[in-house]
Amino acid sequence: MAHERVELAYEPERDDAWAALRARVRSSRAGRRMGLLLVALTACAAVFGAWGDTGLVVQIGGILLIGLVIAPWADVFAQHRAARRRGRCQVVVETGGFTTTYARDGAATFTAWESLPRYRETRDRFLLLGPYAETTPTCVVLPKRGIREPGGADALRALLDRHIGRVTQR
After folding, report:
1. Contact yes or no for 97/5 (Cβ under 8 A)
2. Which residues of 111-141 are buried (b: 16+ CB within 10 A; e: fewer)?
3. What are the helix and strand counts (H, E) for the chain?
4. In sequence order, which residues have a C-beta less than 8 Å from that of residue 151 and are 6 or more positions away?
5. Of 31, 60, 108, 129, which one has the fewest beta carbons inside 10 Å?
6. pLDDT digit string (tens) for 132-155?
7. Is the pLDDT of residue 61 over 70?
């Protein structure tokens, strides 16, 4: 078959880490439950605020601040910092899986399709996701900006479609 190999080379960006976090949250049961919990807490804060119980509203507000702002920001900051430390990333996607090599440590890692059986495509990235059963699934980000060959995004999409399942946006 044509296009049995697609190569990417890119510098990690903070938006890649945000995209990975969003994909992990949306693609896991635990992430969706956490979203529902935060919605429920917001509703409780509104109800208790209407009743005038400001102490409880402040406590719920603190939980929401941690859950919606601080924890995700800290996760993205740590992920991006680790990626920047490893340096420029080169990925070779082939029929058996993909190999990731980082510039600073030179370590090459091969990942078979079985460990990332599905993917989601966004306007700027391909997000390879771990199994549904995982509490917080793995997410590997393949930014389209890293594809060097013309028609590479179409070739990568076709390669992914042959080997793993596509997840549609929710």
Report:
1. no
2. bebeebebbbbeeebbbbbbeeeeeebebbb
3. 5, 8
4. none
5. 108
6. 756 666 889 999 999 989 999 999
7. yes
